[in-house]
Design a protein that fits this description.
The chain is mainly beta and 252 residues long. 12% of the residues lie in helices and 35% in strands. The chain is built from 3 helices and 17 strands. Helix 2 links the parallel strand 9 and strand 10.
Length: 252
């Protein structure tokens, strides 16, 4: 069975905005370019070990603790590494994250969206050798739109793809088929990926990404209907190449 690539998404600043792409070039052994390249650390963050290494998600502000962050959208200009952020409750802001004054402006912009009961936003962190994703491996998140439709039927409503912060969305496969791909290889466009493990979900997926308000018990539905909290799979890029919306996807 073959399917198609329907969405390419990246999240330049971890948990703060998603961006749709028409195409991307993947590199073997690497995450989707500039995905989770920056993250906002909170006051209680503890950074130790290799300064160029990966840091656990507990050090950063995230949608699981600040639901309003889920409603941020991003648009990045690769040529000058600027990011335009929008949110229904905040003015539009455009920043160059590597510029100190812009990093400070981002923290000020985020403060009203972050709960007062949590350690407050403190500084913007840039990735070293590994992106600041939820896991230390350089994975790409692959998700199945047929599974999302089946999930939505269980929930009694359509569910946005942006609840799940994936990178590559495929359509044309059977619902939940992606879990059968673990240990197998899938070719998407010019790239070849090896599917590694399921993605276990958190409370951030309960939040409507249009409003930043929790509205669906996604984890309860997954547990009741399927006996787990998994949605989507992580994959390793083993052969790089160009991907474009509409490209064919198939198991090899």
């Amino acid at each position: 069975m073959t399917g198609r690539l329907t969405h390419i998404l990246r999240h330049p600043i971890k948990s703060i905005g998603w961006e749709s792409l028409a195409s991307v070039v993947l590199t073997a052994g690497a995450i989707l370019p500039l995905d989770r390249h920056w993250a906002v650390a909170h006051e209680a963050a503890e950074f130790d070990g290799d300064p160029d290494g990966w840091y656990a998600k507990r050090n950063f502000v995230r949608g699981v603790a600040g639901p309003q962050l889920m409603a941020v959208q991003a648009e990045m200009t690769d040529s000058d590494r600027k990011i335009r952020l929008t949110h229904p409750l905040r003015p539009v802001i455009e920043i160059a994250p590597d510029a100190a004054q812009d990093a400070a402006a981002l923290l000020e912009w985020l403060a009203p969206l972050w709960p007062d009961t949590r350690p407050q936003v403190a500084r913007l962190v840039s990735a070293g050798a590994q992106a600041l994703s939820d896991v230390p491996d350089p994975f790409v998140a692959v998700l199945n739109q047929s599974s999302l439709r089946a999930f939505g039927q269980r929930a009694g409503r359509d569910l946005s793809i942006h609840r799940f912060r994936g990178n590559l969305w495929l359509d044309g496969f059977a619902p939940w088929e992606e879990f059968d791909w673990i240990g197998k290889e899938v070719r998407i466009g010019e790239a070849l990926l090896r599917v590694e493990e399921p993605i276990t979900r958190c409370n951030a997926t309960k939040v409507d990404p249009e409003t930043g308000i929790p509205d669906v018990d996604t984890l309860g539905i997954l547990e009741e209907a399927y006996g787990h909290r998994d949605f989507g799979v992580y994959a390793t890029v083993i052969e790089g190449g160009a991907l474009n919306i509409g490209d064919e996807a198939s198991l090899t």
